[in-house]
Amino acid sequence: MMYLEIGQLAGGIAHDFNNMLTAINGHTQILLKNKSLDDSTTKILSEIYKAGQRAKDLTGNLLAFGRRQMLSPQTLDLNAVIVETASLLKSLIGDEIVVTISLDPRLKQVNIDRGQITQVLMNLAINARDAMPEGGQLLIETSNADRKLSTRQEQPIKARPCVVMSVSDTGHGMTEEVRTRIFEPFFTTKAIGMGTGLGLSTVYGIVTQSGGDIQVTSNINEGTRFEVCLPCSHELAANVEAPEEVPSLSGGTETILVVEDEELVRMYVSTVLASSGYTVLEAANGTQALKVAREYPAVISLVLTDMTLPGISGLQLVSQLRIIRPEIRAIAMSGYSREQSRVDIDPYCQDFVQKPFSPEVLEMSVRKILDSPKHAIES
């Protein structure tokens, strides 16, 4: 129960932080497009944007162990991911630790976000490194197995084909008391300032959100072994669809209602849309938005609303707007992921953008919905 409460708290913090990053990263990207800037200013802006992207990755960590991270799963050969990451691991953990990799050549494929499983491997390697301050051995293995996947909130289910990635070290090990708490967010046995306590809880969040399970065995002075179990994918690599070609950006002349209680985010979104030719109406909450919808004399083609608003929610707002303006289309935006609210979004909004988003992502989403046939929106 405590894990859930802290996970929800962390997810809420990440949500609010994503609002700020939307304004920071977005406005920085707008400025970077200004060709009249001198080189020194451009360099400073680039560094600001890089810092913003690193902050975005941090919120991804928070959302991951809170199980609110937006994933992009794809069919992967886990062996290939491990091989690609091996050189990074060696530079990360140092020369004092010998890395051995033993991969099953008949390993089945998995369906998981590439960046997230790489993060899992890196975090486990860092944990192993810290357990071997004087050096040791790190063993990474893969195998096929039939496992009952379970989480702390669910009972084990029927055994099914899984891929197992094991990460073992010869470090100092841990007591049973520590072992039972290692996936708790902010729990750490490291000295103050030496660790955040987020590494293993992030691993737990990523693995369980991906439908898998993680198990750990450890003994004092005998090392630790983590086993990440992931359900097998039934797809073949050859069947993986190529990414869609990114369409060229084009603006429009339609009127769009932007509803966002965070002023900096509202300013950023409105700036992007206005610079693309749209007429932009603004509202800080649902009450203001409904007033604008009643009083504006012309057509409002689209409402772009945050999901979390003071008073009525974004989805409730869209429902009420459709009574006033039945033809209006809607896009939801949030610092949480689409997966968290997918069931609620579909009946109301035609698309979703997760904060922080770039000007290009925003423009493409808006144009896609405005260009969609009416029957496609209603289906």
Fold topology:
Blueprint: H1 2-32, H2 39-65, E1 74-76, H3 78-93, E2 97-102, E3 110-112, H4 114-130, E4 136-147, E5 160-169, H5 176-179, H6 199-209, E6 213-219, E7 223-231, E8 255-259, H7 263-275, E9 279-283, H8 286-295, E10 302-306, H9 314-324, E11 329-334, H10 338-345, E12 351-354, H11 359-371, H12 374-378
Parallel strand pairs: 2-4, 8-9, 8-10, 10-11, 11-12
Antiparallel strand pairs: 1-3, 4-5, 5-7, 6-7
Helix pairs in contact: 1-2, 1-7, 2-6, 3-4, 4-6, 8-9
Q: Report the CATH C-level class of the largest domain.
A: Alpha Beta
Cα-atom Rg, whole angstroms? 24 Å
Order of helices and strands: HHEHEEHEEHHEEEHEHEHEHEHH
Largest sheet strand order: 2-4-5-7-6
Considering DSSP H and I runs of 4 or more, what fraction of the residues is helical?
40-55%
DSSP strand tally: 12
- Shape annotation: elongated
Q: Can you summarize the main beta sheet?
A: 5 strands, mixed
Would you tell me which CATH topology of the largest domain applies?
Answer: Heat Shock Protein 90
